[in-house]
């Protein structure tokens, strides 16, 4: 299964949901903020993902949370992925 990213409301809070497997223990939630986006990207890298698909809610997070000021959730997740990749690459 290809990892899947979406922005959803869980318990009244908007979060980034990253599913890397159909198994529930491989679903992680991150806060819908810059730090959460970067952490989601790092999680994707650490899970071994090289590609993923995303919900349209990643492109339009304001549909889920009208007060969200992030416009580039997908780009921030990619940035977190690349940051993790570069950290790993510089160690080797």
Elements, N to C (H/E)? EEEHEHH
Shape: globular
What Rg, in angstroms, do the CA atoms define?
A: 13 Å
- Our measurement of the CA-to-CA distance between the termini, rounded to an integer number of angstroms, reads 29 Å
> What is the helix content?
25-40%
The proportion of residues in beta strands is 15-25%
Major sheet size, sense and barrel closure: 4 strands, mixed
Helix-and-strand structural type: alpha+beta
Number of domains: 1
Q: Give the uncertain stretches in residue-range form.
A: none
Please report the number of helical segments: 3
Question: What is the mean pLDDT?
Answer: 90
Strand order of the largest sheet: 3-2-1-4
- DSSP, total strands: 4
Oligomeric status:
single chain
What does this structure look like?
By secondary structure, the protein is an alpha+beta fold. 39% of the residues lie in helices and 23% in strands. The protein has three helices and four strands; from the N terminus they run E-E-E-H-E-H-H. The chain has helices at residues 34-46, 56-59, 73-91, and strands at 4-10, 13-19, 27-31, 53-54. The chain has a four-stranded mixed β-sheet with strand order 3-2-1-4. A hairpin with a 2-residue loop joins strand 1 (4-10) and strand 2 (13-19). Helix 1 (34-46) crosses helix 3. It is globular.
């Amino acid at each position: 299964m290809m990892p899947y990213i979406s922005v959803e409301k869980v318990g009244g809070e908007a979060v980034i949901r990253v599913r890397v497997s159909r198994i529930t223990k491989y679903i992680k939630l991150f806060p819908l903020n810059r730090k959460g986006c970067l952490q989601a990207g790092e999680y994707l890298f650490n899970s071994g993902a090289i590609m993923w698909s995303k919900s349209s809610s990643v492109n339009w997070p304001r549909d889920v949370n009208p007060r969200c000021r992030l416009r580039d959730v997908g780009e921030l997740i990619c940035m977190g992925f690349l940051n993790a990749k570069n950290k790993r690459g510089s160690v080797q």
